[in-house]
Amino acid sequence: MGAAHAARAKPGAPHPLMHRTETVDYAIVLEGELTLVVDRGETTARAGDIVIQRGTNHAWANRSGKPCRVAFVLIDGRFTDGL
């Protein structure tokens, strides 16, 4: 996440750990809640929710003050020239 090729945090970014990877990601929230931060907004996923993202510039934040358990499945992918 902190690698130079993945890190996308710039001054004024919505979160200091913004990053993107060449993967299709499935995040399944098992317990608690987790906020997904993207370039233009954010959403909170709660137990039972599934988030699917395709190379999205993003970060995760647990703002609940309680533990959160998430299962992540990352499937290898490639960015297209336009990304």
Describe the protein's architecture and organization.
Strand 2 (33-38) and strand 3 (41-46) form a beta hairpin. This protein has a single domain (1-78), classed as Jelly Rolls (Sandwich). A three-stranded antiparallel β-sheet has the order 4-1-6, with no helix packed on it. The two termini are 19 Å apart. The chain has strands spanning 23-31, 33-38, 41-46, 50-54, 58-61, 69-76. Helices cover 0% and strands 46% of the residues. It is flat and about 40 Å long. The model has no long low-confidence stretch (mean pLDDT 86).
Primary descriptors:
83 residues; mainly beta; Jelly Rolls; 3-stranded antiparallel beta sheet; 6 strands; 46% strand
Alpha-carbon distance between the two ends: 19 Å
Indicate how many domains the architecture comprises: 1
Task: Tell me the β content.
Answer: over 45%
Cα gyration radius (Å): 13 Å
How many helix segments? 0
Helix content: under 10%
Mean pLDDT: 86
Going across the major beta sheet, what is the strand order? 4-1-6
Instruction: Count every beta strand, where a strand is a DSSP E run of 2 or more residues.
Output: 6
Query: What do we call the CATH homologous superfamily?
Result: Jelly Rolls
Q: How many strands, what sense, and barrel or not for the largest sheet?
A: 3 strands, antiparallel
CATH A-level architecture: Sandwich
Shape: flat
- Annotated CATH topology: Jelly Rolls
Structural class: mainly beta
Low-confidence parts, pLDDT < 50 over ≥5 residues? none
Q: Give the helices and strands as they follow along the chain.
A: EEEEEE
What is the CATH first-level class name? Mainly Beta
